[in-house]
Design brief:
Elements lengths: L11 E3 L11 E3 L2 E3 L6 H9 L5 E3 L6 H4 L4 H16 L34 H4 L15 H20 L4 E4 L21 H13 L2 E6 L6 H7 L5 E8 L21 E6 L5 H17 L2 E8 L16 H12 L5 E5 L8 H18 L5
Parallel strand pairs: 1-4, 1-5, 5-10, 6-7, 6-9, 7-8, 9-10
Antiparallel strand pairs: 2-3
Helix pairs in contact: 1-10, 5-6, 8-9, 9-10
The structure holds N-[3-({4-[(3-aminopropyl)amino]butyl}amino)propyl]acetamide and zinc ion.
């Protein structure tokens, strides 16, 4: 570029379709609040990566999604908005997004009795949603589906020989399980990328999730699959943080799952130590390819987490992960400070390139 600024060589996979998803806020403790998972997030990231090669997301067959999700979840998400509108719920009571209100809590059911799929559009969402914060609007399904295409396209680039590729996914995905959605996530983009890598490389794949929140969906999808190692560093749910019910160190999946919960207020030192230990764990476990679930909401100043990681911390994390020398797909998850989100993602990608360079990678 000639301006002394390092140029990014990692391809950035992108789709404009992310803008079709406008959650229109979130319902938290029963109150509709503005929400932080907004379209501008991805646009800010794209601007910060303008010097990188841009690759348009390639539409993938439904099998790419079915590798990590039940058909029932896909059927629901694909029709949820149309069904909501057809049921008149946008007029009476005047709710302009799909918001669940009743959930098939395990305490409802006797042994041998399982939940029905509700006939009412007003109730159906509770069968699949595990929170009230993850609203569905007219373009949510198309955007969520395109986010999977974005992640899987990045996996294909790496399988074709790119040392690393970045998928600018929106909406994010790591909270979505095989049959459920929540935490601003609908479909698990990182899991779909891991499944594609797993099929392509033959050997084990590791997912390392550095988003500030526990990657509960990715953990659940691969919990009983010893060929996909899943590690996550996140703010301790035991200290009061989402997803509250899980994400504890005891959840080991027989040795192929690893959680590192950190105290609120943790900064570069503790966070980088955790990233380093997860990287070593993935290497020792024999991973042959890597997915980084790349949320940057651990940043100091992010409105959704109490971790205090700096820009230098994100750069150093990228170096640690790049130094594994594995084919690497980075999948965007959270990150909600619009003023810094782009720069922080850029730091991670530069760090990955530097780390791979140090180990003699081909970047
Ligand atoms: C992908 C991702 O980072 N999902 C995170 C979802 C966590 N959302 C928890 C929201 C809890 C309520 N937020 C209130 C914010 C007040 N500043
Ligand atoms: Zn997060």
């Amino acid at each position: 570029m000639g301006d002394g600024r390092p140029r990014l060589s990692t391809p950035v996979v992108w789709t404009d379709l992310h803008r079709l998803h406008e959650p229109g806020g979130e319902v938290w403790v029963g109150v509709r609040t503005p929400g932080t998972e907004v379209p501008e997030r991805a646009d800010r990231i794209r601007s910060a990566l303008a010097d990188a090669p841009i690759v348009e997301a390639r539409p993938q067959r439904e099998e790419a999604v079915l590798a990590v999700h039940d058909a029932a979840l896909l059927d629901y998400l694909a029709s949820a908005w149309d069904d909501w509108e057809a049921a008149g719920l946008t007029r009476d009571p005047g709710q302009d997004r799909v918001v669940p209100y009743i959930f098939p809590h395990p305490a409802l059911f006797s042994p041998g009795v399982s939940p029905a799929l509700p006939a009412a559009a007003s109730a159906r969402g509770g069968r699949f949603a595990f929170d009230t914060m993850t609203l569905i609007g007219p373009g949510t399904w198309e955007a969520a589906r395109a986010a999977v295409d974005t992640a899987v396209t990045a996996a294909d680039l790496v399988l074709a020989g790119e040392p690393a590729a970045y998928a600018c996914c929106r909406p994010p995905g790591h909270h979505a399980t095989r049959s459920g959605f929540g935490g601003s996530c609908y479909l698990n983009n990182a899991a779909a990328a891991a499944a594609r890598l797993r099929a392509g490389v033959g050997g084990k794949v590791a997912v390392i999730d550095i988003d500030a929140h526990h990657g509960n969906g990715t953990q659940a999808i691969f919990y009983e699959d010893p060929s996909v190692l899943v590690g996550s560093v996140h703010v301790d749910p035991g200290a009061g943080w989402f997803p509250h019910f899980l994400g504890f160190a005891e959840e080991t999946g027989g040795g192929t799952n690893s959680n590192v919960p950190l105290a609120p207020g943790s900064g570069d030192e503790a966070w980088l130590e955790a990233v380093r230990s997860l990287a070593g764990w993935a290497r020792a476990g024999g991973a042959e390819a890597l997915v980084v679930a790349l949320g940057v909401d651990a940043a100091s100043g992010d409105p959704e987490s109490p971790l205090e990681v700096t820009a230098a911390g994100f750069r150093a994390a990228g170096r640690e992960l790049g130094a594994l020398g594995l084919p690497t797909v980075l999948v965007q998850e959270g990150g909600y400070d619009l003023g810094t989100i782009g720069a922080l993602v850029r730091e991670v990608l530069l760090g990955v390139e530097e780390g791979a360079g140090e180990t003699g990678g081909a970047i």
